[in-house]
Backbone:
């Protein structure tokens, strides 16, 4: 009997020892059995190390970082230490359905895909939005991803070689890092999609996605890196700037906005007048 391939599940954590144990349990409850769990502790000071010591299971490995790297940096280290050729992710805000990894690995065996993801719920709302056509969610979906994020980190199952080939997560990003990585992966490979809700998430007040400053910086970063492609899709570019304007207005981020806008204009050679056209 051929043994199923191993999956390395990377769990970054920082001062969330109670949630971490539930997160690990959610992985243990998977119907897919050949896995390891790599917990990357991003410098916690709440006794996370002591909690992990209570877990007597050789499938769990614990890495403590003396210097806080942020979620992206912590994940990159976890992937580097992973023993398997397939990488999945989990965090403390999500509940995995038991068959998640099994369903993704079955899809991955198709052979075409560098990454397979699935639908999920965030505060009980389904993403990607059900009304988005299937052909915009699976296959060569890079142009569609330019418009908005569809793939959350915990929904990803990635070939390790694909992760390394595309460079992994951008450590400087503290928000939308999953979107940016998805764009790079979609540039070089087909992406598989399971139209099934296999994960439930709740956006806590501590969540990175609540950080408007980090989101604005990430949006400007994406607009710089993917500038040439966004020029070919002006509606996608307009959507980005509208979201930035909303963040600026709702959170009084004028200083951050001007700083990031200047970097963007310097990078792209555009002017303020060019930007104003997008708001007309």
Residues:
């Amino acid at each position: 009997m051929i043994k199923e391939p191993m999956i390395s599940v990377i769990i970054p954590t920082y001062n969330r020892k109670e949630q971490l144990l539930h997160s690990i349990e959610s992985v243990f409850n998977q119907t897919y059995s050949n896995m390891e769990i790599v917990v990357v502790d991003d410098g916690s000071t709440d006794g996370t190390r002591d909690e992990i010591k209570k877990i007597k299971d050789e499938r769990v490995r614990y890495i403590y970082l003396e210097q806080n790297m942020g979620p992206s940096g912590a994940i990159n280290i976890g992937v580097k230490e992973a023993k398997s050729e397939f990488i999945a992710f989990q965090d403390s805000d999500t509940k995995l359905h038991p068959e998640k990894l099994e369903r993704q690995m079955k899809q991955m065996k198709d052979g075409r895909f560098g990454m397979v993801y699935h639908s999920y719920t965030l505060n009980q709302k389904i993403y990607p939005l059900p009304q988005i056509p299937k052909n915009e969610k699976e296959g060569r979906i890079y142009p569609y991803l330019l418009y908005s994020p569809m793939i959350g980190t915990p929904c990803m199952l990635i070939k390790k070689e694909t992760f390394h080939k595309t460079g992994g997560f951008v450590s400087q990003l503290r928000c939308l890092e999953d979107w940016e990585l998805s764009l790079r992966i979609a540039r070089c490979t087909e992406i598989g999609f399971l139209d099934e809700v296999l994960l439930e998430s709740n956006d806590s007040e501590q969540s990175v996605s609540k950080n408007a400053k980090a989101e604005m910086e990430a949006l400007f970063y994406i607009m710089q890196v993917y500038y040439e492609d966004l020029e070919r899709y002006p509606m996608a570019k307009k959507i980005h700037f509208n979201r930035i304007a909303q963040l600026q207005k709702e959170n009084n981020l004028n200083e951050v906005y001007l700083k990031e806008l200047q970097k963007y204009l310097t990078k792209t050679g555009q002017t303020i007048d060019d930007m104003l056209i997008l708001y007309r």
Remarks:
- The mean pLDDT is 91.
